[in-house]
């Protein structure tokens, strides 16, 4: 377990202007490299900031900091022109390379670098600030309103929003929250928002928190109304006369003798509670139920041929077996009975040769569970000899099968994980989307491992990382699908060793947060973990 987690804040200054009628709309994409690999993999993206050449991105990148590894980072900037997640559809604004150690080791852990990558052009600079995360797990929920703010708009009242900054050790400020815009009012009531205490003050309750109030303008040139400062300790007193703040515009104060303020902001409510972690739920007895579904469609190739993805060689495991083993070996630690339902789809099954989209690999429809990952592998290899690969490739039946089980245990005592291993050519996209949108309400996650060399565009769409999946106008309430192409983990060279640990890490990376998002949405708290009585 890495000793330290580091939060990176990204800002840029003097970016290139790529838009004709307005300023660029920048986004920053971070790429990382695995230890020992030269391949760049996307780690995450910030939000898009409209009309700005000097963006301070709100989205932070949280990285595990390993002193003993060279952690190469690459930051690419783009001017976003549409909702398309494909970066090649947007204008490139420049890039910067560094290591995490380089940022952490700079004065104040703040690194400024020129952006490069466009010949003959100055692309501006990137500013990277690293802050070690305190292990404070509290989350504060705050709500504010304002009164009699200055009127900034010629035709209507102002459209106010607030921006919160925490102060750094060196006296500079880092953005940590933006409220929504309340339209056309000088007396806004903003929605309550939750924010990790460490984001507000990094565990130092007396550290200054600066709040700026703006009038929103469509073109990005928001008008400054005024500001005030407070601290976590002040806010924690809750609603009281201490938490009514005068909003002051320093320039007006200097110019006008009679100037009092530009309005007031009042804290309406303040609560704080500990953020529960994945391990709190596991310790409290939540079980993970693991179901496997394997693609037996004809597009995998004839299993008796060495070119088939289902070929059973006496010398090595095929891609299906390897993927199953890599993910199963880790997940079985969280499943106390070690019994895993294993299903196949897309084959003609005996005795009558009907096509089935969810048949038990062990041949027992009343109890498709196999004992341990070894039992699943054995059942998989046995059923390959008895069924005929066919089609079409329908995911919805297995998704709905697991969803039916998940729907019977909504109390947080069990969480269901479905692993689908497929060659990726899906036939029932609309039904699968519908099934996933319905499953997003339930305690379940879906992992899709794509084997073979197909284009996996449909799988990437199901993953929903860039655009949340929707069906018939209903958007999934949580992102529950994680897609990983198996070929990214096939390392060539002697013995063609497989980076199975890497595959497992990637595949399981989102499960803890997905479990937490379910528990949080349902207000389920972890059980106090049973203490062992001596």
TrEMBL record:
SMART domains this protein is in? C2 (SM00239), VWA (SM00327)
Q: What lineage is this protein's organism placed in?
A: Eukaryota, Metazoa, Chordata, Craniata, Vertebrata
Give the record's keywords alphabetically.
Calcium, Metal-binding, Repeat
Determine if Calcium is one of this entry's keywords. yes
One cellular component GO annotation, for this chain's record?
Answer: plasma membrane
The biological processes this protein is annotated with in GO are: cellular response to calcium ion
Q: Name one GO molecular function term.
A: metal ion binding
Q: Name one Pfam family in it.
A: C2
| Family membership | Belongs to the copine family.
Q: Which organism is it from?
A: Vidua macroura
* Protein name listed in UniProt: CPNE5 protein
Gene label: Cpne5
**CDD domains cross-referenced by the UniProt entry:** C2A_Copine, C2B_Copine, vWA_copine_like
Q: Does the keyword Ion transport apply?
A: no
Domain C2 intervals: 1-115, 122-245
């Amino acid at each position: 377990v890495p000793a330290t987690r580091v939060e990176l804040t990204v800002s840029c200054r003097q970016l290139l202007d790529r838009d004709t009628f307005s300023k660029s709309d920048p986004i920053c994409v971070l790429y990382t490299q695995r230890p020992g690999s030269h391949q760049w993999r996307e780690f995450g993206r910030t939000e898009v900031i409209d009309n700005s050449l000097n963006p301070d991105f709100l989205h932070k990148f949280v990285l595990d900091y390993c002193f003993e590894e060279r952690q190469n980072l690459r930051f690419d900037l783009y001017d976003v022109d549409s909702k398309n997640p494909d970066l090649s559809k947007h204008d490139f604004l420049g890039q910067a390379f560094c290591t995490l150690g380089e940022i952490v080791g700079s004065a104040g852990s703040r690194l400024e670098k020129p952006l490069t990558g466009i010949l003959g052009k100055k692309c501006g600079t990137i500013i990277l600030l690293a802050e070690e995360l305190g292990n404070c797990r509290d989350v504060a929920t705050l709500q504010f309103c304002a009164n009699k703010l200055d009127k900034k708009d010629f035709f209507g009242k102002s459209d106010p929003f607030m921006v919160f900054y925490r102060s750094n050790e060196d006296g500079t400020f880092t953005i940590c929250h933006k409220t929504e815009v309340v339209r056309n009012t000088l007396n806004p009531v903003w929605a309550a928002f939750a924010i990790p205490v460490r984001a507000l003050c990094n565990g130092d309750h007396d550290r200054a928190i600066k709040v700026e109030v703006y009038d929103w303008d469509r073109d990005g040139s928001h008008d400054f109304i005024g500001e005030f400062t407070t601290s976590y300790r002040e806010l924690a007193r809750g609603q009281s006369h201490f938490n009514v703040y005068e909003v002051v515009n320093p320039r007006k104060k200097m110019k006008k003798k009679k100037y009092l303020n530009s309005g007031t902001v009042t804290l309406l409510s303040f609560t704080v509670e500990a953020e529960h972690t994945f391990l709190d739920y596991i310790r409290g007895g939540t079980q993970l139920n693991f179901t496997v579904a394997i693609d037996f469609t004809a597009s995998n190739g004839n299993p008796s041929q060495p070119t088939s993805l289902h070929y059973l060689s006496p010398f090595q495991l095929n891609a299906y077996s390897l993927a199953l083993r890599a993910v199963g070996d880790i997940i079985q630690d969280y499943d106390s009975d070690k019994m895993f339902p294993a299903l196949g789809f897309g084959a003609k099954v005996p005795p009558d040769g009907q096509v089935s989209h969810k048949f038990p690999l062990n041949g027992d429809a009343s109890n498709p569970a196999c004992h341990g990952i070894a039992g699943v592998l054995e059942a998989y290899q046995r059923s390959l000899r008895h069924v005929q690969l066919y089609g079409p490739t329908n995911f919805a039946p297995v998704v709905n099968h697991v969803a039916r089980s998940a729907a019977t245990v909504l109390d947080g005592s069990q969480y269901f994980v479905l692993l689908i291993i497929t060659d990726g050519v899906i036939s029932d996209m609309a039904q699968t989307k519908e099934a996933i949108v319905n499953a997003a309400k339930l305690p379940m996650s879906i992992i899709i491992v794509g084997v073979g060399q197909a284009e996996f565009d449909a799988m990437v769409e199901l993953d929903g990382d860039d655009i949340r999946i929707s069906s018939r106008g209903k958007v999934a309430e949580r992102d529950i699908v994680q897609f990983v192409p198996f070929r990214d983990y096939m390392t060539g060279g002697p013995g063609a060793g497989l980076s199975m640990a890497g595959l497992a890490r990637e595949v399981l990376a989102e499960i803890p947060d997905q479990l937490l998002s379910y528990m949080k949405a349902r207000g389920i708290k972890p059980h106090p973990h049973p203490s062992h009585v001596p």
